[in-house]
Amino acid sequence: MTVSEFDKGIAFLSVVPMRGAPSDASEQVNVVLFGESFSILEEQPKWVRNQLDHDGYEGWIPSNQVYQIEKEIYSKIK
Fold first, then answer.
1. Would you say 49 and 22 are in contact if contact means Cβ atoms under 8 Å apart?
2. Residue 59: burial class (beta carbons within 10 Å; 0-12, 13-18, 19+)
3. Cα(75)–Cα(63) distance, rounded to whole angstroms?
4. Helices vs. strands in the chain: H and E counts, helices first
5. Among residues 30, 33, 41, 48, which is most buried (max CB within 10 A)?
6. Which helix (H) or strand (E) holds 42?
7. What is the dihedral of CA 36, 37, 42, 47, to 10 degrees?
8. Helices (H), the chain
9. What is the pLDDT at residue 9?
10. Which has the closest alpha carbon to 11: 63, 70, 56, 72?
11. How far apart are the first and last CA of the chain?
């Protein structure tokens, strides 16, 4: 488990699928919509485990489909 200096993120695509495990073959358990923010809990080479800020739901999203931001910048825009 590694977490970079970016511990927050925002979805920049219309819909980002959230999976139950870090795999495209895993069940889709939720979606992250454009502009929704989340905390980054864990990172793998192609996946990010996150927790949505608005409802606390956790899951895995592809790392290339999110924009990661530093916590201090997040606090200024939220």
1. yes
2. buried
3. 21
4. 1, 7
5. 48
6. strand 37-44
7. 30
8. 71-77
9. 92
10. 63
11. 27
Q: Model confidence at 2, in pLDDT bands (50, 70, 90)?
A: very low
Phi first, then psi: what are they for 12, rounded to 5°?
A: -110, 0
**Tokens encoding 43:** 């990172």
At residue 78, the pLDDT reads: 66
| Both tokens assigned to 23 | 């795999």
Residue 67 identity: Y
**pLDDT tens column, 23-69:** 999 999 999 999 999 999 999 999 999 999 999 999 999 999 988 88
Question: Taking a C-beta distance cutoff of 8 angstroms, is the pair 60, 43 a contact?
Answer: no
For 68, counting Cβ atoms within 10 Å of its Cβ (0-12 exposed, 13-18 middle, 19+ buried), the class is middle
